[in-house]
Amino acid sequence: MVNPLQELIRGRMAEQGWSFADVARRGKLPRSTVHHLATNERPSRPPHPQTVTKLAAGLDLPPEQVRAVAAQSAVNTAPPRTRLGMANGDPEVEIMAAAFGRLGRSDRRHVAELVRSLLDRRDAEADKLFDALNEAARHRIDDESVTVTRMPEREQQTAEV
Fold it and tell me: Is the domain of 45 the same as that of 82?
């Protein structure tokens, strides 16, 4: 399955009669980078912004066009695990995943901290619910007057292992 970035690179190369080395030289990129972008079917994220700018120069295309196609390729072909564990096709998750790499370092840190705090809050709520369920279970056991008999020592050692 060819992704949109591959189509763009390969199409432009065929149109102009360029090789990977030609595009690399024109864009001042390593040949291996151009080859990887043109052949990697499942990118997990868009290329670095500088790489996109250099690739655009190598392909003689506007950087905005190459950037949009690269982001679309990463979103459309990313395996489910890179979509933050969410259901495939969730447009909000796809937008966040595609845009995250375009944020500056300080903004990425801010977003990551926000996500951590939301997850911590969710985990704290889950812990409270778990504690409440345990407490209710303890009261239920007490109310039913459960009798526990002591196991012989030999069985107890086996049970502990």
Answer: yes
